[in-house]
Specification:
0% strand; elongated
Length: 59
């Protein structure tokens, strides 16, 4: 019998998935905290506070 059982595959998938999502999280965190992106995020944070008179929004 081979060493490839359900438990082995399930454990590999759990560990691989954890590492995959940790890498995605670390990449997103690096992108958000990268100094070059700071001004973009500050500008986006102020958008809800801007006056809508500059836009032709019909309510």
């Amino acid at each position: 019998m081979s060493g490839l059982t359900y438990e082995t595959v399930a454990q590999f998938a759990q560990q691989g998935g954890t590492l995959y999502f940790a890498a995605i999280f670390a990449g997103g965190l690096l992108y958000a905290l990268w100094p070059r992106n700071g001004e973009t995020f500050r500008r986006a944070a102020q958008l809800p506070l801007e006056n809508d008179e500059d836009h032709d929004v019909q309510a």
